[in-house]
Design goal:
The structure is a single chain. Helices cover 63% and strands 1% of the residues. The chain is mainly α. It has a two-stranded antiparallel ribbon.
Length: 281
Amino acid sequence: LIEPADRVLASVGRLDQAHIEHARKLLKALPAEVAAAAHRPVEAQALVYALLFDARPEVQKAQLDTLAKHAPVAAARSAAQLANIVLAMDRSLKLPALDLAVPSLARMAQPDYRKFVRVVEALIAADDRVDLFEWALRRVIARHVGARFERDAADRVKHHRIEPLKDEVSSVLAMLARVGHGRDEQAAAAAWRGAVRDLPALAAQAEGGLPQVDLRAVSDALDELATLTPALKRDVVRACVRCVSVDDEVTGNEAELLRVVVEAMGVPIPPILPGPMPSDA
């Protein structure tokens, strides 16, 4: 039988027709203004800023003030124009919109990129917390744009065993389990334990309780996991997929987050398709 984890691992480095059709559907669902902005360098920056706008008026005012002070005038103006359109978008379209903007963002010069990141961080900090989407946006930008300027340090093999990183793996799996099962602590714990037991080096971890999730710690964990050998990365990716597909169904949120996690480990994969994940013979 072909397990869901094997399906994802088999997709590393390639696109099939299902992925292409999924991408077309997402592109068609994006507002025209968002799709157009993603293809223009300055407006692509503005689109990222708009994706970070908070729905609460007082937080959004602080964010607009930040843009007025620190962002290029054209980008700040464009972000304000996109604000209501982006806020009205379905959440499932936000990471795809960011993906569409990445090629334009990657054309930035290094000084412009540094300024852009400072503005992004200020917008995230406007409400004194980092939510899951903001965390994912950071990871995508760092992996696909920032890595252009930091290639020497990227993904060098440092770890040849999982054991020293068992807490890091456990933390990442806990985040995936909690996203997949929301407030159902028992279901999340069961998904996490199943994924942890899939890795012999982590078997003892399963005897403890489901860890709490700290997004900063998860980011640090992913940076370390990116330095595993390719074979060990595949083992961790397999556990991550098992964690979200324990019920044979992958939601849009799970699919988005899983791709961000896997790519943060330096494993390039196409979009993970949401929906049922039955096993084939």
